[in-house]
Write a structure and sequence with these properties.
Elements (H helix, E strand, L loop, with lengths): L1 H11 L12 E2 L19 E6 L11 E7 L3 E7 L4 H12 L1 H16 L3 E2 L21 H4 L4 E4 L13 H11 L1 H11 L1
Antiparallel strand pairs: 1-2, 2-3, 3-4, 4-6, 5-6
Helix pairs in contact: 1-5
Amino acid sequence: MKDLLTDLREAIDDSYPHCDLDEPKVFRIFRDVRFSKDKSPYKTFVAGCIPTKRSAKVTETPVAVYMHFGTETVIASGLYRMDSPALARYRSAVAEDARGKALVKILDKLEKWGFLMNGMHDDMLKKVPKGFDPHHPRGELLRRKGLGVSYPALPKGALASPKLLPWLVDHSKRVAPLVEWLVFATA
């Protein structure tokens, strides 16, 4: 996983001219079993990401790519969870006419390429937050607490073949504008 993430980072680095990518991170394989009835010590999947360089925790930093391989495969990009200050800056950017429309344009293009919104976080408010027009044209984006996209399904057999890296590079380059938008909107 570390080698795959390192090779991917090198291949997509040029797609991020306005922000820096951090070193790949592979998540620990050990489970926290303190409060679980299932005391098996290891996770049944491997996961890792390529975060952008920020001082925040990895879970509060936009990631160029997050990969999770196990009984299910998840490949996504975006920002999993925003802390309160970042969320306020994000919502301000979404509400702003120019930046909000730019985000919608990016998301529409990604949707045409087969990416699905909510790739990283499904947690949403039921209503548009206070201080914003309840009928705002980007109300759905204002209700989000995180924003990400999941990649299209991997081609059959790609996970265990040399075709995986080129596929990841192609899709990760396509999602770079969204990640950069999130970096600047939430910084």
